[in-house]
Amino acid sequence: MFASSCGGGYFAPTLASLSTKPPQSNAPFIGPGFTANTFVRQNYTIRFTAGAVAAGSPATCNGLAKGKAVSTYFVAADLVLTTNGMTRYFGVNASGVISAVVLAVVLSRL
After folding, report:
1. Which residues pair with 60 in a beta bridge?
2. Which residues, other chains included, contact 90 with Cβ-Cβ below 8 Å and sequence gap of 6+?
3. Whole-structure pTM over 0.70, yes or no?
4. Residue 109: which residues within 8 A CB-CB, separation 6 or more?
5. Over its length of 110 residues, how does the chain's per-residue pLDDT go in tens digits?
6. Cα four-point dihedral sign 33, 7, 95, 14
7. d(CA 9, CA 28)
8. Of 5, 7, 1, which Cα lies nearest the Cα of 57?
9. Do the beta carbons of residue 63 and residue 43 sit within 8 Å?
């Protein structure tokens, strides 16, 4: 949504950029709890990784300077603590495709 409505087709380089609301808006693109690029939430470590800076990107509607937006991104969610012998990982990139991997964990006694 940011890219099409605020970023001129480009993406925010940080989650803090998405939590900055545009001057004419009542709300930011994401909630106030998502200001760091890596954080733990509901037993998952969430990591936002920005792609290459797009030098030709325009200034955004929420104050990001010209040439500071990025051309792609990746967000990963890694399970912090394995539950029920299963580990699940999730990811999404600029294409919007959500990937999921589920791994069975075999526990043994030492």
Report:
1. none
2. 44, 76, 77, 98, 99, 100, 101
3. yes
4. none
5. 899 999 999 999 999 999 998 998 899 999 878 889 999 998 899 999 999 999 999 999 999 999 999 999 999 999 887 666 678 889 999 999 999 988 766 655 55
6. negative
7. 18
8. 7
9. no
